[in-house]
Design goal:
Length: 186
């Protein structure tokens, strides 16, 4: 199966809404902030489809700032096709432990757990990643995320293709969900 790579311009990152994040954070090395007015250089191969022809795009992506531990990424997944698209995993150089999470009610408490089956985006539809709901969870973060930092992500789709995007670091006092290991699988 072929890989598809999409780079989201940094200008879209500036439009991200400040919402509630989950988890606390731990890390040592700083993520590199990018100038606010410039887009990150594209490293996608010339054969990669444009954002207009990619099966999935990510709008308004952002990641909660952190000094160490855990953080989460948010945004809106947009399916540009006439068929359902499923995101089965995510990765980032910021952490070797990246999971697709959901927040569910358990005994009167909001808990985070791995999202069984991944994120399903309906044909020509969207799927919101937001604090207190579905999100991309980074555990064991290896770099500090400061406001304005550019953090690279790759989403793997059910067909094996990938979609890359960059999320901007944003300060946010997060929700107080609890992590429930082994609560689901992809």
């Amino acid at each position: 199966m072929s890989s598809r790579h999409v780079r989201v311009p940094a200008l879209l990152l500036a439009a991200a809404a400040a919402l509630s994040g989950c988890g606390s954070s731990t890390t040592a090395a700083p993520a590199t902030p990018a100038p606010a007015a410039s887009a990150p250089p594209s490293t996608a191969p010339s054969a990669a489809p444009s954002a207009a022809t990619a099966p999935l795009t990510v709008t308004d992506p952002w990641v909660k700032t952190t000094d160490e531990g855990m953080t989460a990424a948010f945004g809106t997944l947009v399916n540009t096709t006439g068929a359902e698209v499923t995101v089965v995993s995510a990765s980032s150089p910021l952490s070797s432990e990246v999971e697709l999470h959901e927040v569910v009610e358990s005994g009167g408490t909001a808990v985070m757990r791995a999202k069984k089956g991944g994120f399903v985006i309906p044909a020509h539809g969207t799927h919101t990643l937001a604090p207190g709901g579905d999100h991309i969870m980074l555990m064991g973060v290896t770099g500090k995320v400061e406001p304005g930092a550019q953090v690279a992500f790759a989403l793997t789709l059910q067909d094996g293709s990938t979609v890359e995007f960059t999320a901007v670091g944003k300060d946010f006092a997060g929700a107080e969900e609890h992590y429930q290991p082994g609560g689901g699988g992809h």
